[in-house]
Each structure stands twice: as structure tokens, then as C-alpha cells.
Design brief:
With about 300 residues, the protein is mostly helical. It is built from 12 helices and 2 strands, in the order αααααααααββααα. It has one domain: Ferritin. It binds fe (ii) ion (2 copies).
């Protein structure tokens, strides 16, 4: 690394933040784009599993809440793609790479939503896993990304309350409703445990070295378990991992998550990957004329 890059690294490692117009090493810019773009893709793809349930929501209130959540998530992707665009990759290119399968999105959005129980589990636990990563981004060395995370985290925490309320209602309902929640939780547990990624030591993770992230993957997973397993148990639900327990030193033990499944799914081979990307391709084609008319730069 050049002396200038060394100085930059020292600056971000000591808590310094960078603005769009500041000089930054090419490697830092490339890592930022890749990381933030995947976040934007995930927000956008994340609406599809839930959107399928808007028309099937059990009450008007649930329909309104779910619609609002879906709108929030699309809003998050709008904000995030703007940050990527300022770094040099326009939103249209991000969408090209998403629908061609060149860029990735989070593992949990490649799975089907089979019952209303899934809607509760996603809003409660998938959003909970996501907010742990997103809160750690509030200290990101790239200031524009850290700033938008404030609004995003606020909205995500509200999604968790909505999800918890869906789950609580079902757990206080009939045996059949409780079974729906348990069955959904059993299906989602594996993907949830894979969500924060392989346990790379923070010192070896380039995202941590550049202070794009401020916590390691294993640490995020421990935080998730610590915050949510006690709540899951309190509701009378069980977790389908016989090894799961908290040691006396406060560290959670668990069965090794299926890293092969994670790799397979995020490289575009999840059970719903093709169908959901296909839907994005179709809607992008259908709305092309709107962009042509509305966006001056697209004309
Ligand atoms: Fe979101
Ligand atoms: Fe959310």
C-alpha cells in the first residue's frame, strides 16, 4: 500500500469517517460498492416473500401494517442504491447486475413463505438478525452510509414490533395457529443461523479492516441468539437445535450452521431465486417506458 493508503487506513481504523468527495483508495471504494449494493439488493428482494401475503393478510390492520412494511423496505433500497450511485455505480447498473445474477442478495430472501406463520417469523426474527448488522453500520467509516442507517434502523425496529405482535397473537390463539408458528420457525432456523455469514475472525475480514463493518460475523450471531432465544423460549416455542444452550460464560453454543447451503443459496441456487429474479426481470421490462418518460438522463 502507498503511504497515502496507509494514512487512510489508520484514519478509518481510529474512527475517522469519509465523505463522498474525499479521496479514498480504489480497494476501499470497490469494497464499499460491493457491500452496500448487496444490502440494497437484499432490501429490494426482501419485499417479495412478504408481498405475496398482502392479499392474504387475515385482517385489515394486518394488511395495512404489512403493506407499510413492504413500502419501508423498498424505501430502504432506494436510499441505499443512492449511496452506491454516489460512489460511482448508478442504480440502473445495480439492477442490471441483480437481475442477471451477477450480484448477490441475502440468503433469507431466497426461500418461500408457505404460511402466515412465515410472515411473523420474517418480520420478527429476520428483521431482528438484520438490525443487528445494521446497527453495527451506524459507525461505518463511510459517513453517508452510516447516516442513512439511522432512519433504516428506526424503521427496522418497528418491523420487529409488528412481527412480534403477529407471533404473539398466533401464540395466544388456537393449537393450529401455534403449530403454524412452530413449523415456520423450524424451517427458518437454519437460514437464520447462516444469516450473519461464516465466522471469519474480524481481523481477517476486509470489511472490518476498513471499518465498513464494526463487528465480526460470529459476534453478530451471538448477539442475535442472546437477544432472541430467551424470547422464543418464553413464548413456548422450541428451537430445532439440540445443541443450543448458553454457557456459564455467557457464550451461546449451537450446531454448526450449514455453510454449504449458505454458499449454494447466495450464489443463486435457492428454492425461490429463479422465480423472484424472473419477477424482477418482468417488472423491469414492463416499467421501462416509465423510466424513459420520467428520468431525463434515461431519455
Ligand atoms: Fe429494510
Ligand atoms: Fe425491515
Amino acid at each position: 500500500m502507498s503511504a497515502r493508503e496507509d494514512e487512510f487506513l489508520e484514519y478509518v481504523q481510529s474512527g475517522g469517517q469519509v465523505e463522498t468527495t474525499d479521496w479514498m483508495p480504489d480497494d476501499y471504494r470497490a469494497k464499499l460498492i460491493k457491500f452496500i449494493e448487496m444490502h440494497g439488493n437484499s432490501e429490494l428482494m426482501g419485499v417479495l416473500p412478504e408481498r405475496e401475503w398482502i392479499l392474504r393478510a387475515p385482517t385489515l390492520q394486518r394488511k395495512l401494517a404489512l403493506t407499510a412494511k413492504v413500502q419501508d423496505e423498498v424505501g430502504h433500497s432506494q436510499l441505499i442504491y443512492r449511496v452506491v450511485s454516489d460512489l460511482g455505480k448508478p442504480r440502473e447498473h445495480c439492477l442490471d447486475d441483480l437481475i442477471s445474477g451477477k450480484s448477490k442478495f441475502h440468503n433469507v430472501f431466497h426461500y418461500p413463505t408457505k404460511t402466515w406463520g412465515d410472515v411473523g417469523v420474517i418480520a420478527w426474527l429476520v428483521d431482528a438478525a438484520a438490525i443487528i448488522s445494521q446497527k453495527a453500520l451506524l459507525k461505518c467509516s463511510y459517513a453517508p452510509y452510516a447516516r442513512i442507517m439511522k432512519k433504516i434502523c428506526w424503521e427496522e425496529s418497528f418491523h420487529i414490533l409488528h412481527g412480534r405482535d403477529v407471533i404473539l397473537t398466533m401464540m395466544n390463539g388456537t393449537d393450529a395457529q401455534r403449530e403454524l408458528v412452530q413449523e415456520a420457525l423450524d424451517r427458518w432456523w437454519g437460514p437464520l443461523m447462516q444469516f450473519h455469514g461464516n465466522p471469519i475472525p474480524a481481523e481477517d475480514d476486509p470489511m472490518y479492516i476498513w471499518r465498513i463493518k464494526s463487528q465480526g460475523n460470529g459476534e453478530a450471531r451471538q448477539q442475535f441468539l442472546d437477544g432472541y432465544v430467551p424470547q422464543i423460549w418464553e413464548l413456548g416455542l422450541t428451537v430445532s437445535d439440540p445443541k443450543l444452550r448458553k454457557n456459564d460464560d455467557g457464550v451461546w453454543e449451537f450446531s454448526e450452521p450449514d455453510w454449504d447451503e449458505l454458499k449454494h443459496v447466495v450464489t443463486g441456487h435457492g428454492p425461490k431465486t429463479e422465480e423472484r429474479l424472473g419477477l424482477r426481470r418482468t417488472t423491469r421490462g414492463e416499467t421501462e417506458w416509465v423510466r424513459r418518460v420520467v428520468l431525463p438522463e434515461a431519455a
